[in-house]
Write a structure and sequence with these properties.
Blueprint: E1 4-8, H1 12-24, E2 28-32, H2 35-44, E3 49-53, H3 61-70, E4 76-81, H4 86-94, E5 99-102, H5 107-121, H6 129-135, E6 147-150, E7 155-158, E8 161-163, H7 167-178, E9 183-185, H8 186-194, H9 203-218, E10 223-228, E11 232-237
Parallel strand pairs: 1-2, 1-3, 3-4, 4-5
Antiparallel strand pairs: 6-7, 7-8, 9-11, 10-11
Helix pairs in contact: 2-3, 7-8, 7-9
DNA-binding region: 139-237
InterPro entries: CheY-like_superfamily (IPR011006), OmpR/PhoB-type_DNA-bd (IPR001867), Sig_transdc_resp-reg_C-effctor (IPR016032), Sig_transdc_resp-reg_receiver (IPR001789), WalR-like (IPR039420), WH-like_DNA-bd_sf (IPR036388)
Pfam families: Response_reg, Trans_reg_C
Length: 241
């Protein structure tokens, strides 16, 4: 099945060639011009990637991004913005975007970023909860009640509750968990989770870490993500943090 891409762009001059280009690449593409129809499409149908303009006529694209994530959308989100201020881009990453492109952008670059994000978003078929629990590695927390990362099913469990995370959040946490207690450098995280040739702001890593920390705290997970200044990050059991 072809990846499902939802283009949210109100400017026909931008949307039309973008949709044609994506369709030529073999994607199944839909386009809406406002934020509310985009949220409805995400809630009622399969969407693997959201290409999201910020300047929509009915609501700010940042609100669309935030509400999509709050509603449980875990697909990729690339923000398309004419706002060239770094603050707007950082806010976009903070509310759940995986990447951004400033207008005007080249279609070749957009396709490259689309391929990279969809490639990293490709998951093995989800197993049932029972099968996942049986296959998941034993918890490192007390009495088997800690954090469990199932890489094959791409699911994260805190005790008996599944933790809802985005694609990037999963990849970051899985990397840290694989070497729990050891430091993973910022460079390795960016290379493995985003792209070894990434040339954008590294603030997307800090934004992702911030969201992960908040989710782990809210779920009372017995682990902590610790910053090692000038080097990177380490995932520690709470007793050791």
């Amino acid at each position: 099945m072809a990846p499902q891409v939802l283009v949210v762009e109100d400017d026909d001059k931008i949307a039309a060639p973008l949709v044609r280009t994506l369709e030529r690449e073999g994607y199944d593409v839909r386009r809406v011009a406002e934020g509310q129809p985009a949220l409805e499409a995400i809630g009622t149908s399969q969407v693997d990637l959201l290409l999201l303009d910020l300047g929509l006529p009915d609501m700010d694209g940042l609100d669309v991004c935030r509400r999509a994530r709050e509603g449980g959308f875990t697909g990729g989100i690339i923000i398309l913005t004419a706002r060239d201020g770094e603050l707007d881009r950082v806010v976009g990453l903070d509310v759940g975007a995986d990447d951004y492109l400033a207008k005007p952008f080249g279609l070749a670059e957009l396709l490259a970023r689309t391929r990279a994000l969809l490639r990293r978003s490709a998951a093995a078929p989800a197993a049932t909860a029972a099968a996942t629990n049986a296959a998941a590695p034993a918890s490192r927390g007390a009495d088997g009640q800690g954090l469990r990362v199932d890489v094959q099913a791409r699911r994260i469990w805190v005790r008996d509750e599944e933790l809802a995370v985005t694609t990037k959040e999963f990849d970051v946490l899985a990397l840290l968990d694989a070497v729990r207690g050891a430091v993973v450098s910022r460079e390795q995280l960016i290379s493995d989770v985003w792209d070894e040739n990434w040339f954008g702001s590294t603030k997307m890593l800090d934004a992702t870490m911030g969201r992960l920390r908040q989710k782990l705290d809210e779920s009372e997970a017995p682990v902590r993500i610790t910053t090692v200044r000038g080097v990177g990050f380490r995932l520690e059991d709470a007793a050791d943090a």
